[in-house]
Amino acid sequence: MGAVSAVRHLHVGPEFHAEQHVHPEPTSFLERYIFSKDHKVIAKQFLWYGLFFLVVGGAMAMMIRWQIAYPGTPFPVLGQLLWPQNGGVMPPQSYASFFTMHGTLMIFFAITPILIGAFGNLLIPLMIGARDMAFPTLNLMSFWTNVLAGLCMIVSFFVPMGAAAGGWQSYPTLSTLVGSPGHGQTLWILGIFLTGSGSIMGAVNYITTVVRLRAPGMGYFQMPLSVWGIWLTAILNALFVPVLAAGVLLLFLDRVFGSHFFLAGASITKGGGDPVLYQHLFWIFGHPEVYILILPAWGIVSDLLSFFSRKPAFGYKATALSMSVITLLSMAVYGHHMFVVGMSPLLSQGFMTLTMLISIPSAVFFLNWLGTMWRGSIRFATPMLFSVGVVFVFGLGGLTGLHLGAISSDIYLHDSYFVIGHFHLTMAASVLLGAFAAIYFWFPKMFGKMMNDRLGKWHFWLTIIPITIVFCGMLVVGYGGMQRRLYNADAYDFLKHLHPINVWITRAALLLGASQFLFVGNFLSSLISGKKATENPWEVGTLEWTIPSPPPHHNYDEIPIVLHGPHEFNNPAVAGKDWLAQDEPIGDEPVALGAVGH
Amino acid sequence: MHQWPFSWLTTVDVSRDGWRAEALFWYTTLLCVIAFALVTFALVYSSWKYRARPGVKALYTHGTDRKSFAVTGILAALVFFTIDLNLVRVSQIDVKEYTYNWPTSPDTIRVEVMPQQWAWNIRYAGPDGVFNTPDDVVALNEMRVPVGRPVMVNLKAKDVIHSFYIPNFRLKHDANPGYVTRTWFQALKPGNFEIACSQMCGWAHYKMKGDLIVQPEADFVRWMKEAEGDAVRRFDPADREQLWGWEWVQ
Amino acid sequence: MSTAVAVTRFPVPEESRRTSFVGMVMALASWTMLFGALFFAYAVLRLRAPAWPPDGLQPLPRALPFFNTLVLLASSVVLHFGIRPEAEKNPGALRRALLGTMALGSLFLGLQLAVWVPLWRSGFRIDTGTYGSIFYGLTVFHAAHVLAGLVALAVLLPGAFSGRYASGRQSPVRLSAMFWHFVDAVWVVMFVSVYLL
């Protein structure tokens, strides 16, 4: 009986990983820490890289908010360093390049590296029971291509006329030489092209690894939902980042070689192109991009909710399939970003209807999240708090998407702070909280130390409250009519009455910024002197918790044989503990390994 | 006139069709508040009721039984049919009756608007009714329209993309370089309102401001007469830049 | 408790060959989207133009590009037959196929130059409206991929001569061939859309 049940659980992958030999660990410093091919080291590199740009992008956000609330007053301390000639007050040109670079850095250089670069790299091989990525060298190249991209962005601040200042979408003709002379915008294009290439390399690697290197018994529906999220993200990355690459390539040709793809208007007398073409290319990529950012967080949160509720993920398959359906739908809704561009009415209406379809799968996995907590036995450790926070802010963000998806309300709200509030709730707040949840949760596995839970909880409350105020405040001023990207909203009479609200948003934002020092302090002090982590401090069953923290160079001495799904909590057949490792047989049943090897 | 919640937050709506955006906005908001309240309630309730306590075990279920599927399916379908399809339906009506329902009546005011970095060029066809001729009435940063007549706007940007935004009319539309886009509105009340740019158009985007002056019919006609008289006198044939207009797109 | 039981394992090369095949398929899917987006850009610009070629420009020449298309197709055929499983028994087949493909690929690039240079000299440049932008933007970008393909094939040569890639089914050979065929296929679409239609 026991043997039969064990075999029944086996969903044998199409392949068996004999190719995964144990490579000896490199001994030189360069190969171990700098040009490492070990996915765990690359994950850490991406984490540091992403956190660095998170700090830069976050500091910019503070200065942007300061300018909106207190126009004409110098930003404390940093203002005098950055704009001494202006008395420490941010000039409008810098404001424009700051909001442009804030968006660019946060999306491509902070969120992407942390969730996709760091956790994609860390989790995929560990969670599917592999020794490394399918293509370790490609992995190394992916990271260093990203570093080059980051350098382009940093250098662009120091060239004459400064960094790109045409908004993170960089719509032509503003982003062509007509609107943006100087090298800042060109470096921006190079940076985006490089980071895009790095993302594609990573994506190809992730997809292949998931398809080919799953441990025996690890069918697609035995994978943790984190892996599902990252895998779907990788698919979108591989297919849609090239479209952005094509867009910025043509923009590059326009700027550097004088072609006319996007040029039109007074600057050109004959043979003009179409600036709106860029918007099509941008948003064909841009809409999948928001799912690229959020899918890993969804996956991670789906897992963590189950882990800390000590209860199997409710409707696991439905969640995985809903995420897949959203992935598919995201490819066909980009036109809702362009309702006021002057698209044909038929197209607009089609895009609106498709957009609304996204609610169905979203509702399904939302209900599954709530169902997972229902009748659980919830342990509120820091990662769980952050996961619940994600559900909360994503609820707000997702629902406000409805206002923008319908044409007539969008015509009023388009390009207003309502949009800013909406997309920050979905792809900034949710993703950031998801990233924090992931860091608090996997820090022990990455570094072998525990993070301080009490500080983590303070960090959570001092983050979730201001973050909600900031972005909901933006929804409010957006409905009040305030457009985005205004250096000084008081220039318009119809916005003057919103000033007090903007001041409160800024205060909350400064608090939000300040409370991140709790995280930085916790992170660094835990790294140095944190409590030593055991193999499985959270008592969960996914494969990475069956090996030491941190794992050895080759991860698994023996490739595990997977017998269960990732969320076997409180299984009545298990005695003595409420969790079950994915490769752990129930009771004394022998495992019929012969069934695995074809 | 319609009354909306939190009206102190927004500008006064003086348009014939601005209520459509407001109505849909508040309808959506109401449904969202209900949905979000339910989610928050479930989150808080579960967090409290099912917090880990000694001796209490979590329920072992994968939520794959028929009942769970039915509940999830019904709730998801409910969201889709009550919220989404309603929004689509209302929006389709708005689109048909307003957004793309270009005014054709003979009393329609036709205006060409060419934004540039960082100003609004306004052009009326003048007595001959044809655009881009010497008798056109041209203005900078000031658009005058009469109360109660539909105003059809042709937009074309000079240099970079701008967006013609008139908050009191709950309306905005992009102006692209290279080709003409259209939008229209109708004022119900006279007054002085603002034209704003809502698309990033360079560092001075924030002060690209124009005036929209809605006048009673008689005042508007008087102003137009005067302006038409001045137009021909002011026209300098040597200055080709002056003829920046284009053939009207209905 | 379970005890480790020996399991049958596939021979290693077969496994990693399949893995790199999956990776290459994904990479080519990515590249397809890149070129697809460029063709989309072309389609939009063209549909928006009142006439094509716009602005009273002369249509592009067709004869030489057509011949060039045949050259590139021939290179794919040569490569394909050189690395078929049947060719494995013949040790020189791979070498000849690589050299032949590279020769034809180089000829293609040479003939592309023969198309570009006279046009450029006659005043038809990248800044000659959208027609010039599309023509040079797309064909030069494609030529860069041909060049990359040539480099990939050249890297294989030492292995082919030393006998390391005795079988054309070895991963590096197979992957480079996939890339080469892909670049050819893109060219066919480009020739039909940019020159013929």
Which features would summarize this protein structure in a list?
heterotrimer, A: 598 residues, mainly alpha, 17 helices, globular, disordered N terminus, C: 197 residues, 5 helices, elongated
Please give a structural write-up:
The complex is a heterotrimer of chains A (598), B (250) and C (197). Residues 1-18 and 592-598 of chain A have low confidence and may be disordered. With 598 residues, chain A is mainly α. The longest helix of chain A has 37 residues, at 92-128. Chain A contains 17 helices and no strands. Chain A is globular, with a radius of gyration of 24 Å. Chain B is of the alpha+beta class. Chain B is 34% helix and 24% strand. Chain B is built from three helices and ten strands; from the N terminus they run H-H-E-E-E-E-E-E-E-E-E-E-H. Chain B has helices at residues 18-49, 66-99, 217-234, and strands at 109-116, 119-124, 137-140, 142-146, 150-155, 162-166, 171-175, 181-186, 191-197, 209-215. In chain B, strand 6 (162-166) and strand 7 form a beta hairpin. The mean pLDDT of chain B is 93. Chain C is built from five helices and no strands. Chain C has helices spanning 12-48, 63-82, 91-121, 129-162, 171-196. Chains A and C meet through helix 7, helix 8 and helix 9 of A and helix 1 and helix 4 of C.
What's this model, at a glance?
With 598 residues, chain A is mostly helical. Chain A has 17 helices and no strands.
Number of helices of chain B: 3
The chain pair forming the largest interface, with residue counts per chain, is:
A-B, 105 and 95 residues
Biggest pleated-sheet summary of chain B: 5 strands, mixed
First-residue to last-residue Cα separation of chain B: 30 Å
- The number of helical runs of chain A is 17
Low-confidence stretches of chain B: none
Whole-number average pLDDT of chain A? 91
Radius of gyration of chain A (Å):
24 Å
Q: Would you count the extended β strands of chain B for me? A: 10
**Strand order in the largest sheet of chain B:** 3-2-1-5-8
| Helix percent band of chain A | 55-70%
Oligomer: heterotrimer
Structural class of chain B comes to: alpha+beta
